[in-house]
């Protein structure tokens, strides 16, 4: 079953964030991941729940073959070596979504 990551971010340091994303895109493919959507315009359609007032600047949707692939990717030495760039480059929130069929 496919598993999806939804990543939202607010950029703090554009250079470090760009460096992170460049390296990250190469790493995810090693674990069967691919980017479905990234970097487009974000439009809020309703007021939603005001739990977090932080408005993301960027959103990315990644697809992996399974949750195991996601966890291996994030635990990998390659990813660990660039995680400090992510932390320095942006505030992020990442959620994992299991790909169940909608009926």
Mean pLDDT over the full residue set: 88
The CATH architecture term is 2-Layer Sandwich
Q: What level of helicity do the residues show?
A: 25-40%
Strand content: 25-35%
What's the shape? flat
Strand count, sense and barrel status of the largest sheet are: 4 strands, antiparallel
Structural class: alpha+beta
By CATH, the topology is: Alpha-Beta Plaits
Main sheet strand line-up: 2-3-1-4
- How many discrete domains? 1
Number of helices: 4
> How many distinct beta strands?
4
Given this structure, which CATH class is correct? Alpha Beta
State the separation between the terminal residues, measured CA to CA.
16 Å
Radius of gyration: 14 Å
Order of helical and strand elements: EHEEHHHE
**Which residues form runs of ≥5 with pLDDT under 50?**
none
């Amino acid at each position: 079953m496919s598993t999806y990551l939804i990543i939202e971010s607010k950029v703090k340091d554009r250079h470090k964030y760009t460096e992170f994303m460049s390296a990250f895109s190469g790493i995810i493919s090693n674990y069967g991941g691919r980017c479905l959507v990234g970097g487009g315009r974000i439009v809020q359609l309703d007021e939603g729940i005001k739990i977090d007032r932080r408005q993301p600047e960027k959103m990315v949707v990644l697809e992996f073959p399974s949750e195991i692939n996601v966890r291996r990717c994030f635990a990998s030495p390659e990813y660990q070596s660039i995680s400090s760039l992510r932390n320095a480059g942006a505030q992020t929130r990442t959620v994992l979504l299991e790909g169940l069929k909608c009926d």
